[in-house]
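BUG: 3D viewer hangs when loading the predicted structure for this chain

Environment: internal workstation, default settings.
Expected: structure renders.
Actual: progress bar stalls at 90%.

Input used:
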Amino acid sequence: MPSLILRVDPAGLPVDWISWQVAATHYAKNQVLWTLGETPTRYWGGVNRARDTRSFIDVHPVVAVRGMVSGKRMVRTPPLTNRELFRRDRHTCLYCLQKLPDRRLTRDHVVPVSKGGTDSWTNVVSACVACNQRKGARTPEQAGMPLHAVPYSPNHAEYLILRNRKILADQMAFLMKLCPDRGKFHE
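Structure tokens produced before the viewer hung:
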């Protein structure tokens, strides 16, 4: 399966992941302002029978596309899903530090919803079923279960990293420059 292409705006702010077909369309419409990446991927097209040649397009891993992107898209908090939450926490229970597959993790509210907590990035962590049940409707302090990391809301670049686990080295290097230093997230 071909890697996704990182689309950025003219100023270099990441916008979203796009397919190589969408990227090729931007190239064909002369909408690509600049690119990044050591080695573009070559995608082959059809054959011109009269000349006996085959068309192709080289697509770079990062493409800056002409046009404006809504500023709201960059500022808003990314949607919270279990998949991205578990990826943010590196598939680790933040109470016992056990690394587990998605199916064995749960979303734990640090301040329980029943006690006024919210279902937001800064109030949820990945927890194994046993730790989540043991903690119950208490705060970590009340349960005597200290958190091993502080929950945070990812910025847009971090969210793009969480959404795509097949990131090319050039793309990761570009996105990491836009991520704050959060310790273990950058290992």
